[in-house]
Amino acid sequence: MADDSKKIILIVDNSFLSVKLESDLLEKNGFKVLRASCGKEAFDILKFSTPDLILLDINLPDITGYEIFNKIKQDERFKNVKILAVSGSVMKEDEWKIKSTGFDGFITKPIDIKDFVKQVKDRVI
Amino acid sequence: MNIKYFFTQADKKLQKSEAQYRELVEYANSIILRMDTEGNVTFFNNFAQKFFGYKQEEIIGKSVLATIVPATDTSGKNLKLMIEDLMVHSERYINNENENILRDGKRVWVAWTNRPILDDKGRLKEVLCIGNDITKLKEAEKEVLIAKEAAESASRAKSAFLANMSHELRNPLNAVIGFSESLIEGIAGDLNEKQKEYSGYILESGKHLLSLINDVLDLSKVEAGKMELELSSFDLKELLKKSFIFIKEKAMKHNISLLDNIDNDIGLISADERKIKQVIYNMLSNAMKFTPDGGNVGIEAKKINAAEIRVCVWDTGIGIENKDKTKVFTEFEQIDSEYSRKYSGTGLGMPLSKKFIELHNGKMWFESEGQNKGTRFYFTLPLSRVNEK
After folding, report:
1. To 10 degrees, the CA torsion angle through B22, B26, B31, B36?
2. Residues 76-115, chain A, touching B (beta carbon < 8 A)
3. pTM for the structure as a whole
4. Largest CB tally within 10 Å, which of A112, B91, B262, B271?
């Protein structure tokens, strides 16, 4: 598969090993992966690239996943980009907030590797 | 009859009775005072003098507000207004607790009984006040309140800590579970048998740790009264029939027969499906854990009356000895045996299950006739209105 035909996934997560795990799985399955460890890095990347899907951790060191989500969704350029929340939180309040924010899906950590890949594939292929 | 003698005797009797009365009032172990409608002290017994630190001549004729009643109490309540109100509505103050002040400035609490003394036209003349020192009681009450608040704040801190900890533990667990599963799936290339076996142990331990974290979090939610049921209508019979899927593999490995006996008239119930599933899973894995190879594990369900369903998970396992019976529903207690060592659990499954059932207004209990005689765990669920407390 030629590189430019690959679907692009942006992972925003400050846990290095989570990024490693998820990007290895996605690359193995034919995706091109971009990585950011905080909100600022994510926006730097988004200046030059338009991913097909963003995996967004909710608890980031600089700004919350909700704020990033809202900022991205305001930009016309990203209106077709799917955004999935990825979080270790299992608190009802967080789940409710993720749903009401309008994310295209919610993946809990620890991920189930088969389900994880399926969730991504279902939305971009 | 000698009239003079008669009066002398009567006088003596009167004097004696008056002395007795005075002694009673003066030396009673209670504060006794009277004040006029202006709030000026007209009588102050011996006990009151000792208690407040004023001699009789120092306080008679003075206002209680300038002496034993502070203008405001420590909580800021206006006691001047209270005294004024007492003169108008004395009936409201028949029994009244308020703060007072000693001569040396120390604040005390006194429980007062106040009685209006009326003149012959029925107008208020004086108020008779009898008081007892309740400072120690009030201090004890305050300490209890402080302790209660401290306990509540500690409980809130505990819940917040558990929520945070649970979150923080999920990132490292994501790596432990995800990478070991990746290895087993061959994503990093083929593994030899030993490597596969060891990776399996890592994955299994990671999942065990995850269920422990989830159980601790659930338990803290139940304890904090924050566990809410998500009620829906579902087919309990279906859920029970499918429940053996959880343990089928293990049962085959250990040659344990799985038997079910579920009545046909069990159908839809209104309950939290996820929690009921978790309870059944806990009961079944518990039964498996304590049943030696070649034994039986079963599930039974029947409608015991028009309003209740009873579910039983039974086994032919090692049973529960009397000395261990209190441990079953106690958090983090596990019955020590070669079996519990072989299949370690979280020690939270059954206590949590009981709490989930109780949230549904059901009951959970068990029966065991003793060692090696098996165990039967039961729970009941009301057929409707489980959400009403």
Report:
1. 50
2. 88-92, 108-114
3. 0.62
4. B271
- Judge whether B208 is closer than 8 Å to chain A, CB to CB: no
- Chain A residue numbers with beta carbons less than 8 Å from the beta carbon of B177 are 110-111
Phi and psi at B136, nearest 5°, equal -65, -40
**Least Cα separation, residue B280 to chain A (angstroms):** 22
Q: List pLDDT tens digits, range B308-363.
A: 999 999 999 988 888 788 888 887 666 665 555 455 566 788 889 999 999 999 99
Q: Are B222 and B352 in contact (CB under 8 A)?
A: yes
CB distance A110–B178 less than 8 Å?
yes
The CATH number of the domain holding residue A92 is: 3.40.50.2300
Fold of B3-133: Beta-Lactamase (3.30.450)
Give the tokens for residue B154: 């500690």
- Residues 356..385 of B with a Cβ closer than 8 Å to A: which? none
Q: What is the ipTM of this complex?
A: 0.88
The structural domain count of chain A equals 1
Q: Which uninterrupted H or E stretch holds B262?
A: strand B257-262
Phi-psi region of B376 (alpha: psi -120 to 50; beta: other; left: phi over 0): beta
Residues from chain B that touch A22, judged by Cβ atoms under 8 A, are 178
The string of pLDDT tens digits covering residues A71-113 is 999 999 998 999 999 988 777 778 888 889 999 999 999 999 9
Domain that holds residue A24: 3-124
Chain A contacts of B169, Cβ < 8 Å? 88
Chain B residues closer than 8 Å to A25 by CB = 178, 182, 187
